[in-house]
Amino acid sequence: MTFNAPVLNYTLLSPILILLGGALLGVLVEAFVSKAMRAVTQLSLTVGTLVLSLAQVWRIHNEQSMSAAMGSVIIDGPGVLLQASILIISIISVFLIADTDHFTALAAALPGSEEERHSLESGNQVTEVYPLTLFAISGMMLFPIASDLITLFVALEMLSLPLYLMAGLSRRRRLASQEAALKYFLLGAFSSAFFLFGMAYLYGYSASVTYAGIRESIVGGSGNDVLLLIGMAFLTIGLLFKVGAVPFHAWSPDVYQGAPTPITGFMAAATKVAAFGAMLRIYYTVFANAQWSWSPLLSLIAIVTMLFGSLVAISQRDVKRMLAYSSIAHAGFLLAGVIALNKAGLEASIFYLFAYGVATVGAFAVVTLVRDSSGEVTDLNRWKGLGKRSPWVAISFAGFLLAFAGIPLTSGFIGKFSIFSAAYESGAKGLVIAGVLSSAIAAFFYIRVIVLMFFTDPSQDGTSVQLPSILTRATLIISMAVTVVLGVYPAPLLNLISHFSTFIR
Amino acid sequence: MNWLTLLMALPLLGSVVVAGLPKGNEKLVKQVALASTLIVMGATIAMAVSFQRDNVELQFVEKYSWIPSFGINYALGVDGLALVLILMSTILAPVVVLAGWNESHGGRWSVKVFYILILVLETMMIGVFAATDVFLFYVIFEAMLIPVYFLIGGYGTGERSAAAVKFLIYSLFGGLLMLASIIALYVMSGAQGGHTFDLAALSQLQMSSMTQNLLFLGFFIAFAIKAPLWPLHTWLPDAADSATPGTSVLLLGVLDKVGTFGMIRYCLTLFPEASKTFTPMILVLALISIIYGAILAIGQRDLKRLIAFTSISHFGFITLGIFAMTSQGYSGAALYMFNHGFSTAALFLVGGWMISRRGSSTISDFGGLQRITPVMAWMFFLAGMSSLALPGMSSFVSEFLVLVGTFTRYPVHAIIATFGIVLAALYILIPVQKALHGPTTPGNENLSDLNLREKIAIAPVIAIIVVLGFYPAPLLNVINPAATHVIAQLGFSDPVPTSGGK
């Protein structure tokens, strides 16, 4: 038996390899760099790695290849666009992560223990969150370009495992944070099991784990359809869990609430891009010919997700939980883009993912700023009169909310319009009507927050808005600028997306 | 020359200048805002002079690609109707700024923010009437809600935030229904020769009558909320009650016109068949609005709510005129929109002055103003006469045209609508009698009469009402060609008046 050395195209894989290298270096920094220098070294290393990776993505943006890693990875236009989106969203999220006040000094210490107190007092802040972030990002980068199920699963775990840890790193309310982490981990492990189960059935159906092989079997139509249906269903459950679609959403409000806010923002934005990116590729290429088997059920899930997310968000009193339910509703809108199954749907989804991700990071950036003496204030009742205290912060939060609500002249409107028109074009009129209805419902609770901030007199309970640090300010300004520019003049980005958005297979 | 873009840019520029002014100098802010609105008004009049009134095509057309991937253009153009409404908006803007010189003081935010919002709103008011790309129209239609929302919620009185939210939710809901229809039109245009939002191209689309009916409803409900037509009117009295008088003028005088304007520009043009199908139903709703608005106006104890309900009645007349599908009805409705802007402005502004002087908006708190504040009382009286369409006032001409236009096709409807005129006399004369005449009641002895600023502000409004009452030809000459054109396009010809005796 001869052993063939794998042939890897390092240039095409370099964005991911750079991230992995940066992450490993980060681990070394954690071990060897002095306490005083650690945070700043980690931050510059992480941002540098991300920028380098983005530059590398730019270098390969015109490449198309099926064989970058022995057929396990596809480099094509949508893949590059999604990778670039993930990196841009990650960079502005890392700016938020740089505020160490959100993170526990020593994650290994028990909550409330002497050890924890000691490390806090001595300022011995560990910064393992940076390498963890880079590991998670590398998984996210691999997820949408994977082209066989094994790689897809590896990428899924690569992005998930660091996120489970990161969710538990909150400095304050550590028990809630650890509960969130555990919940996320258990349910995530559960969904991974479903995912694997689905993979096994798909292998049983097509005797292949590659996307191309499974597609050929579906096109040929000679296999056992029961295996295909079971395989598709379980694989879909695993993916729907990651994007937080009903009925697989139960983790998201708790995790959003418990995780440190910068992590919540990062997770909400970047994970969605990665997971929907993978989903788009799978449904648009692998399962496209079995459309009539999955489309009706997925439409139902999309409709329920939109309506459920919007309706339940109305009754939320906590801003992070409200944003969690709003992100569930948005997952429903994005599913409409998957179901559309046409070029317009792909373009709309990529635009929406980017626009929504950037606005989400911006919204969570605002959440990190509203604090009292014991940390962040997420109770909406205590956000009263924010517009009076710090008009600019309140105005930017209102801007992000209006974008979520899809008001014209924000990126959210263009996103919503493009995704609904793509869905309508593919004949999914019910989806469009449900989407419009739930947008109306959703507008209600977004507006309620605006009313609280601007039209209610502030209460004297020590809630104040922290002066944003330079990095947080950068995040806010970038995300606001993107939200407005994409709302007023989206043509350049839309053209770019339309130029690149063809899956090769 | 890009007249319409210029008109839209000027107030926006003004708002930027206002934003850049130093803090604390409120007077300067107001002066700059007034100057900006006056310049816009001047520019609009200059543009209107060069309008060719016999040309039924769109004029001052501009078209630039905006989002090519969706076939969206920044496309503007006006016909007679749009021109008249833009003229009305830009004349009302300086009047509102001048008349409400001090109304921004009780707000949550600074005076500066108030005028920035007003100027941004003016840009959108011009844009919404000038847009000929359905997408552009929708964007402005929805974006307009935001400044109004903050104007009501930030500077109003009483339950201002609840009223602002009610207004926004109603409007957003209607807007989203319209969005669904727009998406459907867009997708159909893609299947029939390329994605476009061009109004003229969309009106050529082939669609089944079922589709047409559904899409018509999407648009119509949005406009009926805006207009507002019974039973979708319930947000209006609250909003008018809470908003400052100036905001109310813009809200009822201009923004609500977008509803009736939209019915003509979009419902009739895009869905002629569906418009005919739904006409009987809409006419009934219009009649209910006329009578219901009038009866509720009679029952109001609050001056602002009374004016709001009179407007519901008036919007009933406008809708009746539009859907009578005769050129007289159409001309009447178009003229009515213009006139209603000014008579409502007069009522709200004078009413607002009365309220701020007396510190109460309850009608029974007033009494004998005729003796104490003769000028203010006369102004209110004139405004009221214009609202009840007294001959000699501009609104008489339009109401008469609507009724004549309706009678030639729907005599029974016209007769029922006539009762609205009788009721109008009641809802105006009762407050006139209570507030202006009779003995001076306690609390009113020391009210001051209008000052020079207020007289200057109200003078052009009253002048327009009276002059157009005697000589409406300048406006009708602009509107009539468009009216005949639209009615002919819909496949109607005016019924020949019979000489009776059959």
Task: Explain the overall architecture.
With 505 residues, chain A is mainly alpha-helical. Chain A has one domain. In chain A, 73% of the residues lie in helices and 1% in strands. Chain A contains 20 helices and 3 strands. Chain A has helices at 10-32, 35-59, 77-97, 114-121, 129-142, 149-167, 174-206, 211-220, 225-243, 251-258, 261-286, 291-314, 319-340, 343-369, 386-389, 391-405, 411-425, 429-455, 470-488, 491-500, and strands spanning 370-372, 375-376, 464-465. Chain A has a 3-stranded antiparallel β-sheet with strand order 2-1-3. In chain A, strand 1 (370-372) and strand 2 form a beta hairpin. In chain A, helix 3 (77-97) packs antiparallel against helix 11 (261-286). The radius of gyration of chain A is 22 Å and the shape is globular. By secondary structure, chain B is mainly alpha-helical. Chain B has a domain at 271-496. Chain B has 20 helices and 2 strands. Chain B has a two-stranded antiparallel sheet with strand order 1-2. In chain B, strand 1 and strand 2 (72-78) form a beta hairpin. The radius of gyration of chain B is 22 Å and the shape is globular. Chain B starts with a helix and ends in a 13-residue tail after the last helix. The chains are: A mainly alpha (505), B mainly alpha (502). At the A-B interface, helix 16, helix 17, helix 18 and helix 20 of A face strand 1, helix 5, helix 6 and helix 7 of B. Chain B: It is found in: Membrane. Chain B: The chain crosses the membrane at residues 29-51, 72-101, 113-130, 135-155, 167-187, 214-232, 278-299, 306-327, 333-355, 375-398, 410-430, 456-473. Chain B: Keywords: Membrane, Transmembrane, Transmembrane helix.
